[in-house]
Structure to design on (409 residues):
């Protein structure tokens, strides 16, 4: 009881301590993604050329590019960079389980599409630089193909990740061929 | 031999100095305590919310946990920090549900010194996979290069469900080798999960279908 009274008597001190803890909490949480040197984009951007899909071999122990990388999936990854113009990502999702995801450099997926059962899905996406809503990018002015899905990337650069599930050796060549059909090309201004 | 008596003025000043030093130490200790507790509470709570997650950011179903806003355009700061620290590239929660398990049904940490049975009803998704990693998210080396089962590579039970055994030594059926890995993490990925949406939230990530139970069989 005596201790409680002592604590209550010091409530401004305790309140200030909680406020300081809340500020530390917010700062830590928001700074963590910027301080994390091992985030996926940083790890991959070192080894990937810009605006080209790179097909990775099947994931094995000791040869992982990222932690928690799926061992049952083949990856084709393109590091897109819209600094010199929009980028067209074109893939064919040929079977159930195939997915295309576009990630910003900060790790958020701003576009994701799965394959549909029983048919192939042709996906063509025009990735535009962030912020340019009008100047130079309207289809009428730049003759951009309006059949493309147009997206503004949240960051100038990012990753386009095509995932293709492995189904055993009999399908390996077919999957490889499907991955090779994917393209990631810059469309100059 | 008796020491000579100090002059009263000096005694007074020494006493004042003692009091002032004492007050300074108490003040510094107070500030130190303030900063220490604020840092501990702030960093500790941030670590908990980004590493373990809470009901605000995760869905729990038995031993399985999924981050509901993983890699979506509405990602919250805790989820973003979680995946940035981890260095992984999760599938967007708008097309897939990715569950992670670190504990068995009894709440014991999954460990390679034990043998586990994943007992699953048919999973409601267009494609799924169960993969096993060590605590750092690395695949566990084994001569068979076997790290996962998917909806296309597993041996089903008669009802479409399945059993997967996690063990050091070979087992018949769906066996995932875990020898020498230490602590284990399981990752269950469901692409386009089907199931009842949680009340008030029709988004795909909180659709709750049945998930595998993780039963400990034995430990060495």
């Amino acid at each position: 009881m005596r201790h409680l009274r002592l604590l209550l008597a010091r409530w401004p001190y305790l309140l200030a301590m909680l406020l300081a803890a809340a500020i530390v909490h917010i700062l830590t949480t928001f700074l963590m993604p910027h301080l994390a040197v091992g985030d996926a984009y940083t790890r991959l951007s070192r080894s990937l050329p810009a605006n080209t899909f790179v097909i990775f071999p099947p994931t094995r122990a000791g040869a992982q590019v990222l932690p928690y990388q799926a061992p049952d999936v083949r990856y084709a990854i393109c590091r897109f960079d819209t600094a010199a113009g929009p980028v067209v990502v074109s893939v064919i999702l040929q079977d159930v389980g195939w997915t295309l995801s576009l990630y910003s450099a900060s790790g958020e997926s701003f576009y994701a599409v799965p394959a549909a059962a029983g048919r192939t899905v042709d996906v063509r996406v025009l990735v535009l630089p962030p912020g340019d809503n009008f100047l130079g990018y309207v289809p009428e002015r730049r003759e951009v193909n309006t059949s493309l899905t147009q997206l503004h990337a949240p960051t100038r650069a990012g990753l386009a990740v095509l995932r293709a599930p492995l189904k055993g050796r009999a399908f390996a060549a077919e999957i490889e061929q499907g991955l090779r059909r994917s393209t990631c090309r810059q469309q100059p201004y | 031999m008796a020491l000579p008596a100090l002059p009263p003025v000096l005694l007074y000043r020494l006493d004042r100095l003692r009091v002032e030093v004492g007050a300074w130490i108490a003040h510094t200790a107070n500030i130190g305590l303030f900063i220490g507790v604020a840092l501990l509470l702030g960093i500790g709570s941030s670590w908990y919310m980004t590493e373990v997650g809470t009901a605000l950011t995760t869905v729990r179903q038995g031993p399985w946990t999924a981050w509901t806003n993983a890699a979506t355009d509405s990602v919250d700061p805790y989820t973003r920090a979680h995946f940035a620290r981890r260095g992984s590239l999760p599938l967007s929660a708008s097309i897939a549900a990715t569950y992670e398990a670190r504990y068995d049904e009894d709440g014991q940490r999954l460990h390679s010194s034990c043998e586990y049975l994943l007992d699953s009803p048919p999973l409601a998704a267009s494609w799924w996979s169960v993969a096993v990693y060590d605590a750092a998210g690395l695949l566990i080396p084994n001569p068979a290069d076997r790290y996962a089962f998917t909806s296309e590579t597993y041996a089903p039970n008669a009802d479409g469900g399945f059993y997967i055994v996690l063990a050091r030594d070979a087992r018949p059926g769906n066996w995932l080798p875990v020898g020498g890995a230490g602590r284990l993490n399981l990752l269950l990925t469901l692409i386009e999960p089907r199931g009842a949406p949680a009340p008030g939230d029709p988004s795909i990530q909180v659709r709750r279908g049945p998930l595998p139970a993780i039963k400990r069989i034995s430990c060495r």
Summary: DSSP finds two helices and ten strands in chain B. Residues 196-202 of chain B have pLDDT under 50 and may be disordered. The longest helix of chain B spans residues 8-51.
